[in-house]
Amino acid sequence: MDLFLKNIRNRTIKTKNGDLKTPFFMPDATRGFVKFLENEDLEKSGVVSLVVNTYHLYLQPGMEVMKKAGGIHGFMNYHKPLLSDSGGYQIFSLIHKNPDMGEINDNEVVFRSPLDGSKHVLTPEKSIQIQFDLGVDMMVCLDDPPPNSYSKEKISRAVKRTVAWAERCLIEYKKQLEKRKIDKERRPLIFCVIQGGEHIDLRKKCTEGLKEVGEKHKINWDGYGFGARHIDVKGNFMENVLKKTADFIPDESLKFALGVGSPKDVVRCAEMGWDMFDCVIPTREGRHGRLFVWENDYDIFEKNSLKNGKDKINFKNFFVKGDFYSTININNKNFKKDFRAVDENCDCGLCKNHSRAYLNHLFRSKDPLGMRLAAIHNLRFYSDLMEILRKAVK
Questions:
Q1: Catalytic entry in 133, 143, 275, 278
Q2: Are residues 269 and 292 in the same domain?
Q3: What are the residue ranges of helices labelled H in 135-237?
Q4: Which of 231, 253, 279 is the last residue in one of the domains?
Q5: Distance CA 136, CA 222 (A)
Q6: Do 272 and 323 sit in the same domain of this protein?
Q7: Where in the sequence is the domain holding 359, given as residue range(s)?
Q8: DSSP label at 189?
Q9: How far apart are CA 359 and CA 221, in angstroms?
Q10: Could you tell me how far CA 214 lies from the centroid of its own chain?
Q11: CA nearest 192: which of 127, 260, 237?
Q12: List of residues 6+ apart from 286 with CB closer than 8 A
């Protein structure tokens, strides 16, 4: 095997709801569900973990419901690891787009619910308390994620606030472990977030500040996340910033590329040493009729050979060119009489049981089954991709 992807890290993460092997991808179950999909669909697609959102679940159905359900696992009847995003990105995006929706200061965030206009206050401490009430396996500190278009001065202030809030989150995290009598084996993993926009020096400054917070409180962060967008104001992938930031993070900690991303971006980040990924892309694209299809020019698609360890992969050609897959839009009228499988290399329920023509018919008929089948296929594509990446290691 050509081990071009030499920086991919194989690790096993232990959580209270099961072990995870890196690198891995988490679909977004933002509001406690993946749109149109049952838990069985996720299982068959090879999904190993999901991301839920603190902000959205806090607003609806609310924490009273969550507590009565025994936490988010019981509410969803989902028994694999769950990671909760702090909700900071969603709240701050809301305010950055419309200042009338709230105010950010060094102590807290005050915001109005887009559901009913009600006023809410979120502090770093409250974010951690909510995530403990959710009962997740992995939680993320509340941070200040400014748009990359902001001035360096504004982003620098966000870095300072992010580090300060991470310390408050860590103090509250320790308090909650003690209050709830949670032992080492059952504790949720805790992640901080690195801000800094497109500025490598600010990313480094933020990482160093977060390290110092952990050292001060004698807790090693389980992981560090890459905060805000991973594309610049012109829409370009911030390759150098992502690479440098990954290098700043201690090797013993997990490296979480939040919001990444397209299959090509996931591969590029995995090669930089990022371990974890989450994004709405596979399911959202599927619901719009855009499906990821493996290209057929590589031995990698002999899946039986792959699983038996008889790999014949030139990873340099396969991944770096970025042409290992294509995207088809099943809404296109050209698929109306195309009776091939969406992808002959895929073993998902869609590809095993239905044709492109049938899926085209479902989308043209606006039947939700089409969106469900397409989302299942894209999730299977991502699961296969992550399996391939995990094998691209010594």
A1: 278
A2: no
A3: 152-179, 200-216
A4: 279
A5: 14
A6: no
A7: 286-391
A8: E
A9: 45
A10: 23
A11: 127
A12: 371, 374, 375, 376, 377, 378, 379
pTM above 0.85, yes or no: yes
Q: Has residue 161 got a pLDDT over 90? A: yes
Strand ranges (DSSP E) for 269-323?
Answer: 276-279, 290-294
* Whether 232 is catalytic: no
Q: Are 350 and 332 in contact (CB under 8 A)?
A: no
CB under 8 A, 24+ apart: contacts of 324-327: 324/263, 324/267, 324/294, 324/295, 324/298, 324/300, 325/263, 325/292, 325/293, 325/294, 325/295, 325/381, 326/292, 326/293, 326/295, 327/285, 327/290, 327/291, 327/292, 327/293
- Structural domain tally of the chain? 2
Judge contact between 72 and 11, C-beta under 8 A: no
Of 85, 133, 143, 275, which one is the catalytic site residue?
85
Per the document, the length of the chain is 394
Query: Does 85 participate in catalysis according to the annotation?
Result: yes
The pLDDT assigned to 298 comes to 46
Within this chain, do residues 265 and 307 fall inside the same structural domain, yes or no?
A: no
Q: Measure the CA–CA gap between 276 and 139, rounded to whole angstroms.
A: 13
Instruction: Compute the average pLDDT of residues 195-204.
Output: 98
Q: Which long-range contacts (CB under 8 A, 24 or more apart) does 295-298 make?
A: 295/323, 295/324, 295/325, 295/326, 296/344, 296/345, 298/324
Is pLDDT above 80 for 6? no
Q: Which one-letter amino acid corresponds to residue 347?
A: D
**Using CA of residue 76, residue 77, residue 83, residue 84, what is the dihedral sign?**
positive
Nearest to 340 by CA among 360, 325, 320: 360
What backbone torsions phi and psi does residue 141 show, to the nearest 5 degrees?
-65, 150
Question: 270 in a domain, yes or no?
Answer: yes
Tell me the one-letter amino acid at 323: D
Share of the chain above pLDDT 70, in %: 91
In a domain? residue 15: no
Domain membership flag for residue 40:
no
